[in-house]
Specification:
Helix content is 29%, strand content 25%. It is an alpha/beta fold. It has one domain: 3-Layer(aba) Sandwich (Rossmann fold), CATH 3.40.50.300. The strands form two sheets. An eight-stranded mixed beta sheet has the order 6-7-8-3-9-10-12-11, sandwiched between helices. Strands 2-1-4-5 form a four-stranded antiparallel beta sheet. The chain is built from eleven helices and twelve strands. 42% of the residues are buried. The site of iron/sulfur cluster has 14 residues, from loops.
Length: 338
């Protein structure tokens, strides 16, 4: 399968000043990940682990205080063009060349992302005109209607203002507008968190449809809710304290999580499997670390029930174990069990 995005040791920090002293919040700190054509990748982790910052960094949307600190980020288009983070001079250039056309982002507050006083048809016209100055208003409305119908919305939605739509309809209208230019990659940040269970399922179906119909090639689905991601993702990446600690096929991650943090996350949600229900719920003790001064070695060591001496001193690499990749000394030379 073709790669659509490559991240190698990617770093993006928030710069903060306390008096005259400079501090960095290491929200994305050495992330390596590949996203393939056809992927729906679930990016999971507790609040504050860096998921949304990673999404902003993937969009190359770096505005102060967020700063790119190093590493590689490459987006590869369907026609084989490569866009590297280092080639862009500023955010305006990224916006002009990439946003909407090659990568799109639906933020957490998507329900408020549409201007309430602008009709959907005008929003569609503005999106399409940003990449085709000559498109007529009528043509733009036609394209928007087709896309809304594909997402099981009535075509008269184009004539409405966002405030006239229900939460679920508005979310699907946002997805339709964000993908009008058929970007290779769509990043959605907690797209179902404010919705009831029935509406959540409709939104998940719309996302699957967008990929099936080829309007987008790959989706990055960000959530803190591992049970939602199981319904849609073919792969899951688990983020903890600015780093990816485990990535692999969804069923391997859910059924046989390797990293102690992933195990904790899965054990802390109610299971639909009988064996999971028997085990009962547990929780991960302690709090996520302060990313201004993260723990040495493995960042999970203060909360990990298996922490060894080496875990406090040296950071484990993300290495292949079975079908997954995991960053944990339990599976690496130097750890006690290997
Ligand atoms: Fe626990 Fe050590 Fe693995 Fe970190 S590296 S998750 S502290 S066993």
């Amino acid at each position: 399968m073709e790669k659509r995005m490559i991240l190698e040791n990617l770093k993006a920090y928030y710069r903060q000043l306390k008096g005259t002293t400079e501090y960095f919040v290491k929200a994305v700190d050495g992330v390596s990940l590949e996203i393939y054509e056809g992927d729906i990748l679930g990016l999971v982790g507790e609040s504050g682990c860096g998921k949304s910052t990673l999404a902003k960094t993937m969009m190359m949307d770096l505005t102060p205080p967020l700063q790119y600190m190093g590493g590689r980020l490459e987006i590869i288009s369907r026609d084989g063009k490569s866009f590297e983070i280092s080639q862009f001079k500023n955010r305006d250039e990224v916006k002009r060349k990439l946003w909407g056309k090659h990568i799109a982002y639906v933020p957490q507050d998507a329900l408020n992302a549409l201007m309430p006083t602008i009709k959907i048809k005008k929003i569609a016209y503005d999106v399409l005109r940003s990449h085709d100055k000559n498109i007529s208003f009528q043509k733009a409305v036609e394209i928007a209607k087709e896309r809304l119908i594909e997402l099981d919305l009535p075509d008269y939605v184009v004539e409405l203002y966002p405030f006239q739509l229900s939460g679920g309809m508005r979310q699907r209208a946002v997805l339709a507008m964000a993908t009008l230019l058929n970007p290779e990659i769509l990043i959605v940040d907690e797209p179902t968190s404010a919705l009831d269970v029935t509406t959540q399922k409709i939104v998940l179906k719309s996302l699957i449809k967008l990929r099936k119909l080829g309007f987008v090639d790959s989706i990055v689905f960000i959530t803190h809710d591992i049970s939602t991601v199981r319904q849609i993702a073919n792969r899951i990446a688990v983020m903890y304290a600015g780093k990816i600690v485990e990535v692999g096929p969804t069923e391997s991650i859910i059924r046989e999580p390797l990293h102690p943090y992933t195990q904790g996350l899965i054990n802390s949600v109610a299971s639909i499997e009988p064996e999971g229900r028997e085990k009962g719920l547990s929780y991960i003790p302690g709090q996520p670390p302060n990313l201004m001064d993260p723990p040495s070695g493995c960042r999970f060591h203060p909360r990990c029930p298996y922490a060894m001496e080496i875990c406090r001193k040296e950071e484990p690499k993300l290495l292949k174990v079975g079908e997954s990749q995991v960053a944990c000394w339990l599976y690496q030379e130097g750890g006690e069990n290997v």
